[in-house]
Amino acid sequence: MTTGPYPTTWRRPPQILKDLRWRIAIQIGIVIYLVLAIGSVEVNWARVYAGLERGQRFVMGFLQPDFTSRWRDISQGLIESLTMTLTSTVVGVAISIPIGIGAARNLAPRWIYYICRSIIAVSRALQEVIIAIFFVAMFGFGPFAGFLTLSFATIGFIAKLLADDIEEIDEAQAEAVRATGASWGQLVNYAVQPQVMPRLIGLSLYRLDINFRESAVIGIVGAGGIGATLNTAIDRYEYDSAGAILLIIIAVVMVAEYSSSYLRKFLQ
């Protein structure tokens, strides 16, 4: 029974499989598959036991972090990560805007649409670590490879979401601007930009947060940043220094999170 747009009584949703025997058979099949899948995992219990011991040492190092003994390396890695994060986000967003506009079906010609969508698909298909390995092989170890990696990943992330937002704009506003005889650039400036700009700013801040966390990951494969320092500390079994680096990463992410939340509220 409904008295308006919302129902007043609860009704059980329809079942996809109405036959009880089929439902039971599927549930049994899922259980059998999970049992076989778990059984196919080869577990070396000796290594598990040794890993627990190393894990305990790492937890103790995390609880007693050492910020002083390798502070020079930690500070250098942190500066590299922050520099890579900021520059790659700015460059990536700047490149993403024209690609996102070109990937919007309601704004771009068909041939431009397919080219821009292909660029987005390539960027989104490759994970950051794979891209970092490729750029490290091309340009060597260091933050430049990390900068290129994060910029490339930012393009696929921002351009994809920007294009989807442009395709979902209020067409009435766009038609009103077109009716005035506005050019294509004026259409983008006066009809599209006011509708997608708040979303673009929020996505850019979110990507800034992602890029800092990814800079710690790609540093493990040689793309610079604090991840390389963390990897070196773990390889040397300096778990107290590794704990200090992890605490710094957590602190920076928390500061970025609270700052971006405040900035989004201010802009809206």
UniProtKB/TrEMBL annotation:
Protein's membrane topology: Multi-pass membrane protein
Cross-referenced CDD domains: TM_PBP2 (cd06261)
Signal sequence, renumbered to the chain: none
TM stretches of this protein: 20-41, 86-108, 129-158, 242-263
First-listed, main subcellular location of the protein, grouped into a coarse class: membrane
PROSITE patterns per record: ABC_TM1
GO-annotated molecular function: ABC-type phosphonate transporter activity
Name of this protein: Phosphonate ABC transporter, permease protein PhnE
Organism: Roseibium aquae
